[in-house]
Amino acid sequence: MDEWFYFQTYEWMQSMIFAIEEINKGQTLLPNVTLGFQVYDSCKMHQRAVDGTLWMLTGSDEAIPNYRCQRSPFATMVGDAMSVGSIAMAQLLGISRYPQISYFSTSPLLSDRNHFPSFFRTVPSDVFQSLGLAQLVIHFGWTWVGFLAFKNDYCQQGVQMVKEEIVKAGVCVAFSETIQANKNAVHITHTIRSSTANAIVVFSGSLELIPLMDEMVRQNVTGKIWIASDAWSTSSFLSQQKYTGILFGTIGFALHSGEIPGFKEFLMNTYLARTPNDIFLMKFWEDAFSCKWPEREAVFGSQNNRTNLCTGNENLDSLRNLSTDVTSLRAAYNIYNAVHAIAHALDGLSSCQQGRGPFRSGTCADVANFQPWQLLHYIKNVHFHNGIGNEIFFDEQGNAPARYDIINWQQSAQGTIRHVKVGSYDSSAAPGKHLAINMSAIFWGSGEAQVPLSVCSHRCPPGYRKVVREGAPICCYQCVLCPLGEVSNQTDSAKCSRCSWDHWPNARQDQCVPRNIEFLSYEEPLGTTLAAAGVIFSLIPIASLGLFIHHRNTPIVKANNRNLSYLLLLALTLCFLCSLTFIGYPSPEKCLLRQAVFGISFSLCISCVLVKTIMVVIAFNATKPSSNFRRCVRPQLSYVVISVCTLIQALVCVSWLILSPPFSEYNTQSSPGKIIVECNEGSPIAFWCMLGYLGLLATMSFIVAFLARNLPDSFNEAKFITFSMLAFLSVWLLFIPAYLSTHGKYMVAMEIFAILSSSSALLSCIFFPKCYIILVRPELNSREKLMGQKGGPSKKIKAI
Q1: Are the C-beta atoms of 695 and 732 separated by less than 8 Å?
Q2: Is the peptide bond before 80 cis (omega within 30 degrees of 0)?
Q3: Closest CA to 64 of 50, 54, 76
Q4: How far is it, in rounded angstroms, from Cα 378 to Cα 367?
Q5: Are the C-beta atoms of 422 and 139 separated by less than 8 Å?
Q6: Cα separations (Å) of 664 from 579, 588, 593, 681?
């Protein structure tokens, strides 16, 4: 027996004895069968584990391969605790298919059924721990993680599996260091201090981690989130007060702690007289109560006369050590489940009915004399619920359901660390529900309830996308605003998505909203103003027409070609009113007709002005003796010229409407976030031809009027027409660049403004002086005044 005595391992042995006694006393399992046991201390050495295995198989102190001295069948081997020992044992036991159930060996190698066909375990494989720790890191959103691992196989394999899992989920490794006892604690501490990673996964034993923690205390490195493997997640060595500032808030995995009903009472009733053959109890008693048995004192002697002698009546209730603490049974709980699994397998074997058995020809095994491979069959298929309701079974690799407690290190009132269960991991749960965490029960080292961050780059909010920095891990990125017209509605979006044609991103660019539909409507102020101006201005030529008709026989009306003035005023009314066709929803019908109406109306108007100018020149020259212009002073010529000029424009517009008609369209390109409903002119060439023809008529009118400006004032309208044409051409020349540089409703408003301005220029320059004389200076509206202005020569002309 070892010189050093471990209370915890003695408790493990007691849990096995308790489970066997519980089964033997009960009537549910193996009612007519009594289980026995043998205990062998491997002392954590795999060679002694092999020696013990051979000793138990042989049944004598001398190991004899393939031979058993005892007549009672050997059922199953429970052990070893260390994976190295279990591997050595499993290689030996697997040859003869002797079942073996370990309660603490977690190496993934033992799941290989080709090499270890008869190995089972009630403790989870390290594979499940690695998967669980990876899920824990992902659950808390830590994407920038450091790794520490001691230089043994358990730690290196465990940390490698965690890395592989988290990398699949997009988590990045900030650093990875190997702990080498006292050799590199300073280097690792410097790495941790200089890294921006706050979350650190540590696979190590508690004793191997102490030098690093001491160095962390010395350099006062705090604010890190420690993620513990089960080897140190409940360590009493690291729970001392001096490590509180560093390890407070640690979270990690620990073997599932289960309750064993009646086990505490069983331990409290342990005494030497009850179990006289227990060779471990004497050593336990001496270490627990700091005393010596009289017979051992006599044999070994002592130089200390004050040595207490053990009586065997000491009170176990007074002990406060690992041997009596059953509040958090982990390995002992696994041993308890292992014994019950064996009992259920034996019960299945003993209750087999001949003819219905699992072996050849339906045969069964004899519970008093069975082969190891026969019991192996039943252990593979064992499935039951233990005393606290947990489901126990083995999968194809011999693993029981992997259950872990999630432990959080919290500060006690005394300033030390206490280990608080805040969640669990269960591999048998439904996918996505393996982790169960009570977030409100967790205390972080920062003192805040919010989960601390461990990221290389802060998360990109909706409306942004991630762009990885060149040469950096994928977790180190920049947040870039989504391009125009695209959105991202998730945090840390890798790309932005384009909105549909009738939608546009909102101000935050995190969702698509319907685009605003824009056109020049009657309801908005600009549309209302322009519509009102068009209607009001159209009333002025009508009023002027009424005034001229009322004063039709006055000299000023007769002297300025009365009928042409009437027609011009009607044409101006149409020009003002045609602006209304540009306001309102651009329906297909409105788009088809509005430019044609505008072009023909203005052609009629400018044709009238051109004819008035020509007629002034003809009328003046017709007064000369023997003039050939007398034949031209007739109304029919005026109407022919007007009709021809207007008909040319009408032909241009009709050709336009037939060959490439305007149509209504949705413009989503000109103005972000808007759908501009506008009229596509169909053929830009036709549109500019129509405007160019108006410009040609206006230019001809301007030239003729300019040349006729020096004719006698009595008959001369040329000066007024010159100014009107100058204003008309100026408006439309300025219209061209303004029209080309605007879009949407403002382009339409610009054309309406040009229509109203040019029409107003014609109306004011040609008719306002005449209306002024008629209304304000009627004394000037006489033949004598018109014929004798400025005292110049007066000539009699026939009024047209």
Answers
A1: yes
A2: yes
A3: 54
A4: 12
A5: no
A6: 18, 5, 12, 9
- For 712-780, give the secondary structure using H, E and C: CHHHCCHHHHHHHHHHHHHHHHHHHHHHHHCCCHHHHHHHHHHHHHHHHHHHHHHHHHHHHHHHCCHHH
- Return the CATH architecture of domain 525-789: Up-down Bundle (1.20)
Query: pLDDT-based confidence at 622, cuts 50/70/90?
Result: low
Is residue 745 within 8 A of residue 714, CB to CB? The reply is: no
Cα gap 491→497, rounded to integer Å: 14
Asked if pLDDT for residue 621 goes beyond 80, the answer is: no
Whether the pLDDT of residue 134 is over 80: the answer is yes
H or E segment at 503? strand 503-505
For residues 579 and 572, give the distance between their C-alpha atoms in angstroms, rounded to a whole number.
11
Q: Whole-angstrom Cα distance, residue 151 to residue 203?
A: 10
* Tokens representing residue 396 in the block: 């194809």
Give the architecture (CATH level 2) of 7-123+259-271+313-389.
3-Layer(aba) Sandwich (3.40)
pLDDT at 55 over 50: yes
Mean pLDDT, range 380-385, rounded to an integer:
95
When mean pLDDT is compared across 124-128, 391-395, 430-434, 636-640, the lowest value belongs to: 636-640
* Residue 619 burial (CB count, 10 A): 21
| DSSP bridge partners of 384 | 392
Strands 464-468 and 477-481: antiparallel
Summarize the confidence of residues 734-740 as an average pLDDT.
87
| SS3 (DSSP) at 445 | coil
Provide the token pair at 719: 């000066």
Per the model's pLDDT, the better-predicted residue between 619 and 610 turns out to be: 610
Each domain of the chain, given as residue ranges in start order, spans 7-123+259-271+313-389, 126-257+403-441, 464-514, 525-789
* Fold match between domain 7-123+259-271+313-389 and domain 126-257+403-441: yes
pLDDT value at 792 more than 50: no
Report the distance separating Cα 519 and Cα 584, nearest Å.
7
Residues 195-227 as b/e (b if ≥16 CB within 10 A, e otherwise) read bebbbbbbbbbbebbbbbbbbbbeeebeebbbb
Q: What is the CATH number of domain 126-257+403-441?
A: 3.40.50.2300
- Residue 30, pLDDT score: 92
Predicted confidence (pLDDT) per residue in 216-266, tens digit: 999 999 999 999 999 999 998 898 889 999 999 999 999 999 889 888 888
Burial 579-608 (b: 16+ CB within 10 A, else e): bbbbbeebeeebbbbbbbbbbbbbbbbbbb
CA distance 428 to 212: 36
- Let me know: does 533 contact 756? Beta carbons within 8 Å: yes
pLDDT of residue 400: 94
What is the DSSP pairing of strand 403-411 with strand 512-514? unpaired
**What angle in degrees, to the nearest 10, is found between the helix axes of 279-289 and 7-25?**
130
Question: Phi, psi at residue 309, to the nearest 5°?
Answer: -100, 135
**Over residues 634-639, mean pLDDT:** 74
| Residue 752 in this model has a pLDDT that exceeds 50 | yes
Residues 6+ positions from 153 with CB-CB distance below 8 Å:
107
The answer to whether the CB of 398 falls within 8 A of the CB of 113 is: yes
Structure-token match 């989920």, residue found: 169
